[in-house]
Design goal:
The complex is a heterodimer of chains A (324) and B (279). Chain A is α+β, with helices and mostly antiparallel strands and 324 residues long. In chain A, 30% of the residues lie in helices and 22% in strands. In chain A, 36% of the residues are buried. With 279 residues, chain B is α/β, with parallel strands linked by helices. Chain B folds into two domains: 22-104, Translation factors (Elongation Factor Tu (Ef-tu), domain 3, Beta Barrel); 110-273, Rossmann fold (3-Layer(aba) Sandwich), CATH 3.40.50. Chain B contains six helices and 15 strands. Chain B has helices at residues 84-90, 127-139, 162-171, 194-200, 216-228, 270-273; strands spanning 22-31, 36-41, 52-57, 61-66, 75-80, 97-104, 117-123, 147-153, 173-178, 190-191, 208-213, 236-239, 255-256, 259-260, 267-269. In chain B, the strands form three sheets. Chain B has a seven-stranded mixed sheet with strand order 10-9-8-7-11-12-15, with helices on both faces. In chain B, helix 4 runs parallel beside helix 5. The chains are: A alpha+beta (324), B alpha/beta (279). Chains A and B meet through strand 4, strand 11, strand 12 and helix 8 of A and loops of B. Bound molecules: flavin-adenine dinucleotide, iron/sulfur cluster (SF4) and FE2/S2 (inorganic) cluster. FE2/S2 (inorganic) cluster (FES) binds at residues 244-247, 249-254, 260-262 of chain B.
Chain lengths: 324, 279
């Protein structure tokens, strides 16, 4: 097993910053993954309020530009630096896995892939649940990282998860030491207090208790914006004053807003808040699983933490299932 | 005939960037009614009837349009003016350039339906994708039994494909209706809803396959009439329409209860989406 001593961890990060963009959990007004300018900003165990997805699936993406009838793809930045994200939690890493499926499995999304290819994922295994909204230990999360750090006394034990991770360790070998220490099963697993009853929700589609949650939903879309897995987007064209030149852009979209399904004639398919709320939950827990064998949700709790009325869909669903 | 390849498997047609359309020229433009027109584009690709393409006018936007023909030499698109892209398209003419990507989606599984009798039901501009079926049937005459058409339009002025209607009347069992005839035009069709004609018709479900494309209301009524006549959901194929952005099964807009209209549809066998047609 490999380890990095905590005493030399900062030196390692400083060394990294010389040739790489270093990104880590940083606390500002709210906490988020940000480009590190000063390593004193880093709080490696912090579970960020905002998700990491913006680093791969950008909020605003130019897809191509046009000048009359000439289209041009955005220049690929060959000289862009390698990027290392340190401090990704297991739920974050698993949401990257979900987004990798959407943007790189069947359809190769060039914008996402470019950012993903230049990034090394270094996880940090939570020692304890961050707060009462985390429910990751009920979500069957897998291993998905280049490196994983396990906090153990005065060192981080290091697990290598990929070829990319191995090459990375080789490059910075002087910080990594062999150790007799090893991981016990309980070092890997934490138990969250909140647990989702993951039995199929198929037969609950018409259950009256959805209303209890929906009645206090504003359709503000905070939940899907904060979700690290949600990947829906809009596409539109922007033109300059000549009307000839411009760009096709894509932006994050939100299924909680009525315009998400609005078609010609003004018809909105999911017109009620209940339709939209259930769409979110079913997409997270059922549709994605039917297609890809895993829930879209990774139990990070952000949609509950960030909801202005703290709608706890986990408790809501558990209660529905208890009644039966 | 093997199922046609999707665009993704045909790199010679498309850039590696799946969102980037290719340029093509309009080779003919024909006005069909006050708000519908037909363009033929020089876009050569294999496709199934019922598939669609994404048309781009740079700076205006992109719109999914069903393929209304069945040929590897050209592509016909019937377009209704409803908004930015479709109105701008209506001002184009022969020789103009536009951009296209596709074909996308699952069309009508025609090659799996050999030997069946076909009932083709369309309302308004919903007739356009069905036109692809008829071109297909023309090219595979001996593979299908009797073909009956039920096409309904709002008024005589809205009737699309008037030239083709004449040929279809000779070849197939064509039933045509208009909802009303306000200008007292001389017409040779019924004045009623197309659903009334279907209700009256003696339809025996045996060995039949039904294709329906039209406004949601008309599709719902038609389906309940057919069910009353003993048709099973497995015999009915519907074309669905949803807001679409990517056409690649990512952006999420077109989802119907977990199915992507752009990937798993737009043609669904009715039992695949059944009760969720409004989701
Ligand atoms: C699979 C599929 C096949 C289609 N085939 C045809 C066809 O053969 N002929 C045809 O005329 N139309 C077809 N449509 C509908 C056509 O795509 C829309 O009318 C078109 O996108 C509207 O674009 P616009 O820029 O003109 O309108 P906009 O200015 O974008 O909008 C006008 C109105 O249309 C709505 N709208 C926007 N995009 C869509 C959309 N994708 N579907 C429905 N409404 C939308 C808007 O919400 C708004 O209410 C099809 C749609 C789908 C999904
Ligand atoms: S954050 Fe809460 S209130 Fe806002 S849309 Fe999501 S569930 Fe509804
Ligand atoms: S149109 Fe984007 S997922 Fe279907």
């Amino acid at each position: 097993m490999l380890k990095i001593n905590k005493a030399s961890f900062n030196d390692f990060l400083l060394d990294l910053m010389r040739y790489n963009e270093l990104i880590a959990p940083v606390k500002t007004d709210e906490s988020r993954f940000e480009l590190v300018k000063d390593i004193k900003q880093i709080e490696i165990s912090l579970h960020t309020y905002f998700p990491v997805k913006k680093l791969f699936f950008r909020k605003h993406q130019t897809m191509f530009s046009f000048d009359k009838n000439k289209l041009a793809e955005p220049e690929t930045s060959a000289e862009k630096k390698q990027r290392v994200i340190v401090g990704l939690k297991r739920c974050d890493l698993n949401s990257i896995r979900r987004q990798d499926i959407m943007f790189m499995k069947d359809t190769k999304d060039p914008y996402y892939k470019e950012e993903r290819d230049r990034t090394i994922l270094v996880g940090y295994n939570c020692k304890e649940p961050f707060d009462e909204y985390c429910f990751c230990s009920s979500m069957d999360l897998g291993d998905y990282y280049d490196l994983m750090l396990y906090d153990k006394d005065d060192a981080y034990l290091v697990e290598i998860g990929s070829e990319k991770g191995r090459n990375f360790v080789d490059r910075y070998r002087k910080y990594f030491w062999d150790t007799e220490l090893f991981l016990r099963p309980e070092d890997r697993r934490i138990e969250t207090k909140l647990q989702l009853d993951k039995r199929d929700i198929k037969e609950y589609y018409n259950h009256p208790d959805w209303k209890k949650m929906v009645d206090i939903c504003f359709s503000c879309a905070a939940c899907v914006t904060l979700c690290p897995s949600c990947y829906c987007f809009d596409i539109h064209d922007e033109v300059d004053a000549t009307l000839n030149k411009g760009e096709r852009k894509r932006n994050w979209a939100a299924c909680q807003l009525p315009c998400f399904t609005k078609v010609a004639g003004g018809h909105v398919f999911r017109s009620t808040r209940e339709d939209r709320f259930k769409h979110r939950i079913y997409h997270q827990l059922q549709y994605f699983k039917d297609r890809h064998g895993m829930t879209l949700c990774t139990g990070c709790g952000r949609c509950i933490r960030g909801c202005p009325t703290r709608i706890n869909f986990v408790k809501g669903i558990n209660e529905m299932k208890l009644e039966k | 005939m093997p199922r046609v390849k999707t665009a993704k498997e045909e790199p010679e047609q498309q850039s590696a960037n799946p969102y980037l359309p290719v340029s093509t020229k309009i080779t003919s433009f024909k006005r069909e009614s006050s708000d519908c027109f037909m363009i033929r584009i020089d876009f050569k690709t294999k496709h199934d009837p019922g598939q669609f393409v994404q048309l781009t006018l740079p700076g205006i936007g992109e719109a999914p349009i069903s393929i209304a023909s069945y040929s590897q030499e050209f592509m016909d698109l019937n377009i209704r003016e409803v908004g930015n892209v479709t109105k701008a398209l209506s001002k184009m003419k022969k020789g103009d350039t536009l951009f296209v990507r596709g074909p996308y989606g699952k069309g009508y599984p025609m090659d799996k339906l050999f030997g069946k009798e076909l009932i083709v039901i369309g309302g308004g501009s919903g007739v356009a994708p069905l036109k692809g079926i008829l071109s297909y049937v023309d090219k595979h005459k001996n593979n299908f039994g009797e073909v009956s058409l039920y096409f309904g339009f709002r008024t005589p002025e809205d009737i699309l494909f008037k030239d083709e209607m004449r040929q279809w009347r000779n070849k197939y069992n064509l039933n045509l209706s208009v909802d009303k005839n306000p200008n007292k035009a001389r017409i040779s069709c019924d004045v009623c809803f197309i659903t009334n004609l279907i209700e009256k018709a003696k339809l025996n479900p045996e060995n039949k396959i039904v294709f329906i494309c039209g406004p949601p209301m008309m599709m719902n009524i038609t389906i309940s009439i057919l069910k009353n006549k003993g048709f099973k959901e497995e015999q009915i194929y519907v074309s669905t329409e949803r807001l679409m952005q990517c056409a690649l099964g990512i952006c999420g807009h077109c989802m119907i209860h977990g199915k992507y209209t752009c990937l798993d549809g737009p043609v669904f066998r009715y039992d695949e989406i059944g009760q969720y047609t409004n989701d």
